[in-house]
Design brief:
CATH architecture of the largest domain: 3-Layer(aba) Sandwich
Distance between the termini: 32 Å
Radius of gyration: 19 Å
CATH topology of the largest domain: Rossmann fold
InterPro entries: Class_I_gatase-like (IPR029062)
Helix content: 25-40%
Amino acid sequence: MTYMLSSKALHTVNMEEVCSSCKGGYFHIAPKITKVAVINLGMQKENLMDMVNMKCSLNVFDEDFSVNQLNMVPHDIVMVSNGKLDAEKIPMVVDKIKALIGKKKIFGIGLGQELVKEAAAQAGVQTWKQEGDIMISEENKLYCCDMSQQNQLEEIMKYA
């Protein structure tokens, strides 16, 4: 028999029982890896590597992404990155973000913060609270920061 345990479950199990119940088999302990769908508007390679080093698995989409395609890829979070975006594409990206609101956590950083807030406003989201440098609308699963400081990526990923 084979068991798979998450690192979180490891704290709650009786190891003697697990070991005795898998005689002749084995158990696997899986680390927590956050799956992130990144809508990349120009995020620096270093920031992507920082996320990988924070135990994130990334699927990176460009600004022309399809909401259906994004939804088919397993993810815990959608991150709308910082960068630049052609002004004529902004309404299209905002509409796509609006379609994702409330379904998964959405993180907006830099330009992504502005687009997430615009999509939220169009969707009728009015309640935001400030926690340090992070703006949060918990009931809508929205988290935003401006990325003016390097450690803000780490700060926002604490909400993953």
